[in-house]
Design a protein that fits this description.
By secondary structure, the chain is of the alpha+beta class. It has two domains: 5-76, 2-Layer Sandwich (Alpha-Beta Plaits), CATH 3.30.70; 92-175, Alpha-Beta Plaits. The protein is built from six helices and eight strands, in the order H-H-H-E-E-H-E-H-E-E-H-E-E-E. The strands form three sheets. It has a four-stranded mixed β-sheet. It has a two-stranded antiparallel sheet with strand order 1-2. The longest helix is centred in the N-terminal third of the chain and has 7 residues, at 28-34. It is globular.
Length: 176
Amino acid sequence: MELERRNFLRGRFKPEPDVIRPPFAIVEKDFLSSCKHCPDCLSSCDENIIVMGDTGTPQISFDLGECTFCGDCLTACKTGALDRGKARPWKVKAKIGGNCLSINAVFCRTCGDNCEVDAITFKLMTGGRSAPVVDLELCTGCGACDYVCPNKSIQMSLGQEINRPAIVEGRESYNT
């Protein structure tokens, strides 16, 4: 992702991560031309996780809660920017970083306890540690794990870059 002039002038020298749009958002280029910047999807979200981004378009903030996939934003969108017939809910998946408490020998299972589809399990390791394992086939990308993580070790990412094994801070990060 390129560093935009707008971000440079705001003192943001690193490219921002990809924006996560509401469920059933069509292809980004088409979404940007279809979305009319109205607040309909924002006001329809009972979880209040849809916010207006810097560009005035809706995006998801998992810091505010999780997505229940209720479809109210989809129903509220009259512009076609959200369309069940043209798009999957989304490719968002959980990625757990190396500062995870459990990986660092502090007992924590908050993410796994809050995952309704049981996509997060724990692999026992040496030294009293256990590594959270995210099953990418089961993960819906709802953000429940991200929202409750006491250490903010979980990042919700668009699925393309998390399907391969990664080493995070010298420790294994498991995604299956």
